[in-house]
Design goal:
Elements lengths: L3 H11 L8 E2 L2 H7 L2 E6 L9 H10 L3 H6 L1 E4 L3 H13 L3 E6 L4 H9 L3 E5 L3 H15 L2 E2 L6 H7 L1 H9 L5 E5 L4 H13 L4 E7 L4 H8 L24 H7 E7 L1 H15 L5 H12 L1 H4 L3 E6 L12
Helix pairs in contact: 3-5, 3-8, 5-6, 8-10, 9-10, 10-12, 13-14
């Protein structure tokens, strides 16, 4: 496992390529929750999500020879944009495998950041085969969206910044999808928090992480019928051991609770966030007694929404 000094070095490495995002508070949401809430707004990060951090760290850790041949990933969402923008910032090629069913708005965003898109059938097998073909043809290095240690360490820098600003936080809550954000957050809390715990939030409709902690092995979702489209992926063998060791618990939330929390953030905080981000606030509101009277950090993971497909 990475040590405290190495995690600090990650932050220094990526600092020139990322924004230090703001922390926003809301007296009304404090009153509703009964807690002191501190929202780390990664929706204001470059390309609109925390994934810029991990993508940048992973690319910077490649050798110059590897960088020259470029990077490849498969993603239909934020990581596709993150790799594309990170690669452009560093001046190397980025090859992005996207399912043909990905929203056109996301494809256009990837192209806008300089990513070279290869479309494939909407299956994991098709994605992996398309990525392997690109690797064979170009020599590009594959970077996984969440199950890569350099990506995980980069994602942890959001919580590091939050704890720098508010070192007395008692809990930090983050959404759980592929596991990169919560694993990185848990490492940051472990090294930089003071009696602070990491808690995850995920939908009942995609509760593989909750079940994985219960069973002690990585579980899959048979279906993932959730509005939180960024949380439909599953944990990996790199991030799961970190989550097992350092995450206190994962709270599951209903779809109506996610939508309610999403509306609260849009209406009361006046910021655009995606449904996946709202799961963390939904978890706090679902189990108020757990958070009552405590100082709670909430990672707003991103703000890339399809405005034609909002639940309200």
């Amino acid at each position: 496992m990475i040590n405290k000094q190495e995690l600090s070095a990650v932050h220094e490495r990526i600092r020139p390529f990322i924004h230090k995002t703001p922390v926003i508070t809301s007296k009304l949401l404090d009153e509703i929750s009964g807690a002191g809430l501190f929202f780390k707004c990664e929706n204001f990060q470059r390309m609109g999500a925390f994934k810029m951090r991990g993508a940048t760290n992973a690319i910077l850790n490649l050798s110059r020879k590897q960088q020259e041949k470029g990077v490849v990933t498969h993603s239909s969402g934020n990581f596709a944009q993150a790799i594309s923008l990170s690669a452009r910032s560093i001046g190397i090629p980025a090859y992005i495998v996207m399912p043909s069913t990905a929203p056109q708005v996301k494809k256009e965003a990837v192209k806008g950041y300089g990513g070279r898109i290869t479309e494939c059938l909407p299956t994991l097998d098709a994605r992996e085969k398309a990525a392997e073909k690109i690797i064979d043809e170009t020599g590009a290095t594959f970077i996984h969206p969440s199950n890569d240690l350099d990506v995980i360490y980069g994602q942890g820098t959001a919580a590091m910044e939050l704890l720098e600003d508010y070192p007395d936080l008692e809990l930090i809550v983050t959404p759980v999808g592929g596991g990169g954000l919560i694993a990185g957050t848990a490492l940051a809390v472990h090294y930089f928090g003071k009696n602070c715990k990491t808690i995850g939030a995920e939908p009942f409709e995609a509760d593989d992480a909750f079940r994985s902690l219960q069973s002690g092995k990585i579980e899959e979702n048979e279906s993932a019928n959730t509005i939180a489209d960024g949380l439909k992926t599953q944990l990996g063998d790199k991030n799961f051991p970190i989550i097992q060791e350092l995450v206190s618990e994962i709270i599951r939330v209903e779809e109506e609770e996610i939508i309610s929390a999403l509306k609260l953030i849009w209406e009361r905080m006046k910021i655009v966030v995606e449904p996946s981000s709202a799961t963390a606030l939904a978890a706090v509101l679902r189990e108020k007694e757990k958070f009552e009277g405590k100082k709670v950090g909430i990672i707003i993971s991103g703000g890339n929404v399809d405005l034609k497909n909002l639940p309200f």
